[in-house]
Amino acid sequence: MDLLSNLALGFSVASSFENLFFCLIGVLLGTLIGVLPGIGATATIAMLLPITFQLEPVSSLIMLAGIYYGAQYGGSTTAILINMPGESSSAVTAIDGYQMARKGRAGIALATAAIGSFFAGTVSTFLVAIFAPPLTIIALKFGAAEYFSLMVLGLVMSIALAHGSILKALAMVVLGLLLGMVGTDVYTGTPRFIMGVREFSDGLNFVALAVGVFGIAEILRNLEDEHDREMVTNQVGSLWPRREDFRAMIGPILRGTGIGSILGILPGGGAILAAFASYTLEKKVSKNPKEFGHGAIAGVAGPESANNAGAQTSFIPLLTLGIPANPVMALMIGAMIIQGIVPGPNVATDQPRLFWGIIASMWIGNLMLVVLNLPLIGLWVKLLKVPYYILFPIIMAMCSIGVYSVSSNTFDLYAVAFFGLLGYAMTKLRFEPAPLLLGFVLGPLLEENLRRAMILSRGDPSTFVSRPISLTLLLMSLGVLVLVFLPAIRKSRDEVFIESEG
Amino acid sequence: MKLNITRRVAMAMALAAGLASAGAAQAEFPDRAITLIIPFAAGGSTDVVGRIVAERMGETLGQQVVVQNVGGAGGSLGAQQVAAADADGYTILMGTVATHALNPLILKQKPYDPVTDFAPVSLLVLVPNVLAVNPELPVNTVQELIDLAKKEPLSFASSGNGTPLHLSGALFNSMAGTDILHIPYKGSGPALTDVLGNQVPIIFDNLPSASGHIKTGKLRALGVTTATRAASFPDIPAIAETLPGYETYTWNALFAPAGTPPEVVAKLAEAAKTAMEDPKVVEQMAGFSATIVASSPEELAEHVKAEMAKWEPVVKEANVSLD
Lengths: 502, 323
Fold this sequence. Notes:
The complex is a heterodimer of chains A (502) and B (323).
Chain A: H1 2-14, H2 17-35, H3 41-52, H4 57-82, H5 90-102, H6 106-140, H7 144-158, H8 166-181, E1 183-184, E2 191-192, H9 206-224, H10 226-234, H11 243-265, H12 270-285, H13 298-313, H14 315-321, H15 327-338, H16 347-350, H17 352-383, H18 388-407, H19 411-428, H20 433-456, H21 463-466, H22 468-501
Antiparallel strand pairs in A: 1-2
Helix pairs in contact in A: 1-17, 2-4, 2-17, 3-4, 3-15, 4-5, 4-6, 4-13, 4-15, 4-17, 5-6, 5-13, 6-11, 6-13, 6-14, 6-17, 7-20, 7-22, 8-20, 9-18, 9-19, 9-20, 11-12, 11-13, 12-13
Chain B: H1 2-27, E1 34-38, H2 45-61, E2 65-69, H3 76-83, E3 91-96, H4 97-106, E4 118-133, H5 142-151, E5 155-158, H6 164-176, E6 181-184, H7 188-196, E7 202-206, H8 207-215, E8 220-224, E9 249-257, H9 262-277, H10 279-287, E10 291-292, H11 297-318
Parallel strand pairs in B: 1-2, 1-3, 5-6, 5-7
Antiparallel strand pairs in B: 3-9, 4-7, 4-8, 4-9, 4-10
Helix pairs in contact in B: 2-9, 4-11, 6-11
């Protein structure tokens, strides 16, 4: 069979000594930068690009790909241990992962993330190998109207992210949407909400926002409460998941892998949505939805699998169409061009060694990650025992370096400080940062696609319901709304007294 | 007394060291790493060209040329940073048609002057743009596209408002007497995706980014935007063959801050020229469909003036202005 011989070719390329070596370098480096909060894969890959000029094209791309998924992996480590998501997708992991860590279950959370990621990585690598061409066709069917409807679905689902008041969650989504509006309007070039500051003209920096509202806010909160902190650092329970933990993570991992694989294919926002969508789904199907936000293992297993599956399948548009799904993929295209490879549909046929070599290396890389990281869990957890007065200045310094490295803009550092304070105020008032982040990411996409769809249809709004995919997505959003609000309305009647007590 | 001697020795040594370093700075310009600011995010075509050139220039100059991406505001944040940098040649800019012709014309508040705030170093490459359509659009030539556009409403995708590709389309509309609607995207990638999926039928794109799709027939190229056909695609006619006088292209050039000593500028220009003559670079640029120019500083100064003069009426006619 063609596929088998292709995979055999891929594995023979990827398992050469040289390529194994570069794959290892890539995943090691990726894990490292993922663990250092704020320093993203984009900056690292950009810095390493010149080095790759000297390498074989296959080796260089294998290494760069390794950095990318290694960083996804390492990012969840900091999200769990110190509530500091480096990548948008690990923001979801932070919600329950960090709560698990606070309850002394950091080792189990890290192991869950590792196992979920490995499983998702394996499945989605084979999906890439088998279905890359047909899946690309689906991605191309998504026009502005479809993206708009997908974003509506995403926003509706975000309400379920809240584990407190729905009203407060809505307020955070709206604030996120507004923050997402900052910057130059794509269609008219009009600057909005920039208050005369030109650094704002491309919008607020996502990393600055995430590091601020999650990480810095958490540091402030920890510094305020000495007793609370002692409790966190001294309670490190068992490192390895027990049998019931395994049982609790199987379902979420399977569902997360499915959601991530599908959404990862869509260029622009797909992979981010995957983690959020998986969290929402797990909360919905769970028997104890109240556990979510307080250290539910499903809240780590699902989103982690989804984000890793999405990270793998986002290579599909890159390899089959030459279209970047995110900034890291854009850099990979740059690396291919430098090597004299024209990215596009012909890569698979013209460069089978490269195409299948990368795919095979993804699986090898995932295996390396799991082998490397499972023994490291003990070490990471020990990190929590480092006295906080040493740990927090290091974290803050790393964050600042990382945020600055994104676009060499000192203004982003002020943004971190501002959002840190905002995040702290939000914690005090019991507002959740996750819906804010989702609103911030989805808002601009929602608006951009709404307006593009309207321009393309020359002002006719029926375009959203006359296109079948768009209509389906809108109906799904309606369904989720009903599901969310029916029990909420019923519950609010029952629980009004209980809530006023707490 | 003893102390005095040591102090004198120290002073003499400090003086000597100071003189030596001053002498070295004059005799041999790069005595430390040079920063090349690329005013766009990593991964775009300007970034790729910049990184290739930076590496080779570093070898010639004997000092590393460190690339720093300062993206934002269509390239004007990075350009502004170089305009305000010390005029010693250690901070230079990878300028483009956007930073040194279009932005200054479009922006209502001018953050810098493309002529008086910079010392031109070298025009490195010209990159053609291309007019391409989804194969389902029933047109095969520029003329057929013009005829169709006069009969029914059409749209074209570009990498964003006020970009060279948007204005290539605006110039096309104005010369052909058509009114093809502009749909801006955030960058070339998403614009290309929508044209491949036939969400939008027409695109103006950089030739290097579209070339893979043209080769495999996923896009039908109608014409290149340069005055003559591109060497890498001799089968694609120039738009100018249908619309005489039509010419646009994207270019990349090195600039230092105004007031940089001429001998430093000359040394940078020489290093850029050597870099662009390297056979490996020649090969990489050919694969990129870029034409190597590697001009002198004077030629670049003339080029900037000519580009400003060419784009001014187009910008006015397309009625593009940004705050």
